[in-house]
Amino acid sequence: MACDLTESLLHGYLDGELDAARASEFENHLSSCEECAAELETQEFLRTSMQDALLYERTPTALRTKILSNVAVRERPAFRFQLWKWAAVAACLLILMYAGWRALTLSVGRDQNTELAAQLIDDHIRSLQPGHLSDVVSTDQHTVKPWFDGKLDFAPPVRDFSQQGFPLLGGRLDVLNGRSIAALVYGRRKHFINIFVWPDSGGPPDVRSGSQQGYNWIRWRNGAFELWAVSDVNSSDLQTLQQLFASP
Question: What pLDDT was estimated at residue 55?
């Protein structure tokens, strides 16, 4: 019957892989187990014989040189591939960074528009309270525009569009972010439209629109001014009024 320690400990002992306690235990076992002692002697003899046989030769210099040359040739394309791979990764990262920057820029722009729209909608709602809609009540642009003289550091573009269905009703002073601005009041089928005007801050000339709290708004720039129209009329009416302001 084969000894269990022959398989579990003998090779570890022969290769010096046992700790001191296990090695001492196996040595004590050898004194009473002829099978393990004989197997250990056989394995030691085999190892010694293989070491003494010198069963290896040094590689000839010419063959060694040829092998190393072939390895170098094979590695160069791989190295170039690595360069292209990292270049592609870098390009992808640049594209992602640019896309993230554009998204952040647009997001900031949307947030600013949303914040301003909320403030101007609040101003529009307050203006609908009795006695707050207009400081100067007139359908004549030549009366409304001079009224702002001396009250603002700019002259708002007051125009009457009665023939197009947007009669001028008057104007008033309003406040946005601590600055006095002009509010022009127009009518549209028993509805009121507030157009808030202040000097252009130099932003992009594009037209933006949206809806909040049940009110529509549209923002555009016209020459030296930034204009926001706010009302509960439909968005197409606001777009028509914006186009009338943009026309000569």
Answer: 59
